Amino acid sequence: MKNLLFLLFAFLAIQITSAQEKILPQEKSIDDNLIYNTAGIEVKPEYPGGMEAFYKHISKNYSPPTDKAFKGGKIFITFVIEKDGSMTEMKVVRDRGFGTGEEAIRVLKLCEKWLPAEQNGKKVRVLYSLPISLSSN
């Protein structure tokens, strides 16, 4: 009986080990699509010309609301900088109304590709948060 129990446990251990080996390549492909936070990244994404050029692009192309009821404020946008430097998954996190979030998304879609982030020598996807301060006219 002990021998049979031992063989059963040995068989289960071998099965679990082979199942884990088969899962690892799939996990690796999942890691390829992870979205990192910029705080822990070795090489942060960079806009061509630097952040000054990025903010210049935003201020040059952003058209604030003309409605007299608009009082200004901050809006927050998040987006993912992909491995090829393109921007995807643009979302308005906090909006001031009057079309401010939609206008910010429109302007971001006009941006050049970024130099992508790198982690452990590989290009990775990174979540970026952008606050935009707006003043009333």
Secondary-structure blueprint:
Layout (H helix, E strand, L loop, with lengths): L1 H30 L3 E3 L12 H12 L11 E9 L5 E8 L5 H10 L7 E3 L2 E13 L3
Parallel strand pairs: 1-5
Antiparallel strand pairs: 2-3, 2-5, 4-5
Word description of this protein:
- It is a single chain.
- The chain is an alpha+beta fold and 137 residues long.
- The chain is 38% helix and 26% strand.
- It has helices at residues 2-31, 50-61, 100-109, and strands at residues 35-37, 73-81, 87-94, 117-119, 122-134.
- Strands 1, 2, 3, 4 and 5 form a five-stranded mixed β-sheet that branches.
- A hairpin with a 5-residue loop joins strand 2 (73-81) and strand 3.
- The longest helix has 30 residues, at 2-31.
- The model is unreliable at 1-30 (pLDDT under 50).
Q: What global shape is seen? A: elongated
| Gyration radius, rounded | 24 Å
**Beta strand %:** 25-35%
Number of strands: 5
What integer is the average pLDDT? 81
Helices and strands, in N-to-C order? HEHEEHEE
Structural class: alpha+beta
Q: Tell me the distance between the termini.
A: 87 Å
Helix content: 25-40%
Number of helices: 3
Low-confidence stretches: 1-30
State the major sheet: 5 strands, mixed
